[in-house]
C-alpha cells in the first residue's frame, strides 16, 4: 500500500435570522413538530429539533416539544437560523496514515484511518479523504456536489477501513448505480458487547434520525429500510467478534442495529456501550472496521476485492479481550 503524504412540499425561501409566522398546512396534520418544520422550511430534522429545544418555536402561542403532533391550521412561529454558507471548497491537506490500496483510471481505493471524514461538511473542520487525495495530486470525478465529487459511499469519521472514490465519470456513474442497487459487497469486523442470540442472524429494522438525540440515529417505525447480516467469528468472556455484511448503507447502520439488539459495538458510548469496558481495552472509539469491499470494476465488469487489516488500536483491544478471556 502506498502512503498518502502528510419529501413533501417545497422548501420556503428564507433570509438569515428570519422570523416566520404561518398556519400549519392541513397536509401535515398529525406529523411530529420537528418533521413538520423540516418539511415546511427545507431544514434537516436535526436542525428543526434543535430550534424547538432552544425555544425558537411556538405553536398557538405555547412552547411545544419536538415530538408533539401538529394540528393542521395551528399557528406556528419560528425563528429560523441563518442560512448556512454552502460547503464548496475542498482544501488539499495531507493525512497521516491514509494509504492507497489501489488506483487506476476509473477509481482509487483508500484505507481510511480514524478521525478522517469522507468529504467536507458544514461544521466539520477536520481532515477528509477528498482533501488528502487532492494533496496527493489525484484527479477525482467532477460528478456530485462540489465538496464531495467522486464520493460514492462514506465511512463514519470514527470508522476505519476500505473506501472507494471515483476518478472518472464512468467510474462515478457505475459505482453509484452499484451501491444503489445493492450490488457492492461491504463487509465489516465489529466487536460487540455480550453474545448475540442467535450467533448468526439478520437485523431487518428501519433506521432514521433519533427522535430525541440530535446527530444520532435509531430504529424507528417510519424509517428507511435497513438490513444487516452478522456472523460470529470469535467469542470472548465479555464480547463477541462478528463479521458483518451490509445489505443497505444507512448512516451508523451497524452501530444502530447492534445497539437495538442490546449488543452495542464495544467503545461506542454514543450508542450505549459500557465505558468501563472501553477503558479496560484502551478504546477511544467504536470497535468497527470496514475490512473488505467487493464490486464489479466499472471498466470491464470483472469482480475486484480490496481488504484492510485491523488498525493498531483495534488490534490491541482485541488482544486485551483475548487475554481477559
From TrEMBL:
Keyword Iron tagged: no
Keywords for this protein: Isomerase, RNA-binding
Where is region (Disordered) located? Answer: 1-26
What Gene3D superfamilies does UniProt report for this protein, alphabetically?
A: Pseudouridine synthase (3.30.2350.10), RNA-binding S4 domain (3.10.290.10)
Q: Where is the active site?
A: 156
Tell me if RNA-binding is a UniProt keyword of this record: yes
GO BP annotation list: enzyme-directed rRNA pseudouridine synthesis
- Signal peptide start and end residues: none
Gene Ontology molecular function: catalytic activity, acting on RNA; pseudouridine synthase activity; RNA binding
Instruction: Please list the reactions this protein catalyses.
Output: a uridine in RNA = a pseudouridine in RNA
Give the EC number(s) listed in the UniProt record.
5.4.99.-
Any Pfam family hit? PseudoU_synth_2
User: Which segments constitute the Pseudouridine synthase RsuA/RluA-like domain?
Assistant: 106-260
Query: What's its job?
Result: Responsible for synthesis of pseudouridine from uracil.
Q: Which family does it belong to?
A: Belongs to the pseudouridine synthase RluA family.
Name of this protein: Pseudouridine synthase
The scientific name of the source species is: Pseudofrankia inefficax (strain DSM 45817 / CECT 9037 / DDB 130130 / EuI1c)
Amino acid at each position: 500500500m502506498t502512503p498518502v503524504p502528510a419529501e413533501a412540499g417545497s422548501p420556503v425561501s428564507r433570509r438569515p435570522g428570519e422570523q416566520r409566522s404561518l398556519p400549519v398546512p392541513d397536509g401535515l396534520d398529525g406529523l411530529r413538530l420537528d418533521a413538520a418544520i423540516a418539511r415546511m422550511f427545507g431544514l434537516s430534522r436535526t436542525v428543526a429539533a434543535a430550534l424547538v429545544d432552544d425555544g425558537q418555536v411556538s405553536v398557538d402561542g405555547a412552547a411545544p416539544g419536538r415530538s408533539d403532533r401538529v394540528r393542521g391550521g395551528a399557528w406556528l412561529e419560528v425563528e429560523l437560523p441563518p442560512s448556512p454558507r454552502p460547503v464548496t471548497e475542498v482544501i488539499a491537506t495531507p493525512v497521516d496514515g491514509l494509504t492507497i490500496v489501489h488506483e487506476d483510471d476509473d477509481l482509487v481505493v483508500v484505507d481510511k484511518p480514524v478521525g478522517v471524514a469522507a468529504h467536507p461538511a458544514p461544521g466539520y473542520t477536520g481532515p477528509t479523504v477528498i482533501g488528502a487525495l487532492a494533496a496527493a495530486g489525484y484527479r477525482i470525478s467532477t460528478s456530485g456536489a462540489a465538496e464531495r465529487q467522486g464520493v460514492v459511499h462514506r465511512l463514519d469519521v470514527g470508522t476505519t477501513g476500505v473506501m472507494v472514490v471515483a476518478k472518472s465519470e464512468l467510474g462515478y456513474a457505475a459505482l453509484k448505480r452499484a451501491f444503489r442497487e445493492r450490488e457492492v459487497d461491504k463487509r465489516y469486523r465489529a466487536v460487540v458487547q455480550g453474545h448475540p442470540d442467535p450467533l448468526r442472524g439478520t437485523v431487518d429494522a428501519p433506521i432514521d434520525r433519533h427522535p430525541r438525540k440530535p446527530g444520532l440515529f435509531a430504529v424507528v417505525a417510519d424509517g428507511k429500510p435497513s438490513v444487516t447480516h452478522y456472523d460470529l467469528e470469535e467469542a470472548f468472556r465479555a464480547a463477541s467478534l462478528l463479521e458483518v455484511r451490509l445489505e443497505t448503507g444507512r448512516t451508523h447502520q451497524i452501530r444502530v442495529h447492534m445497539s437495538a439488539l442490546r449488543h452495542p459495538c464495544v467503545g461506542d458510548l454514543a450508542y450505549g456501550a459500557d465505558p468501563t469496558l472501553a477503558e479496560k481495552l484502551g478504546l477511544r472509539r467504536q470497535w468497527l472496521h470496514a475490512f473488505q469491499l467487493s464490486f464489479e470494476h466499472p471498466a470491464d465488469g470483472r469482480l475486484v476485492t480490496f481488504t484492510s487489516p485491523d488498525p493498531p488500536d483495534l488490534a490491541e483491544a482485541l488482544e486485551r479481550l483475548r487475554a481477559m478471556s
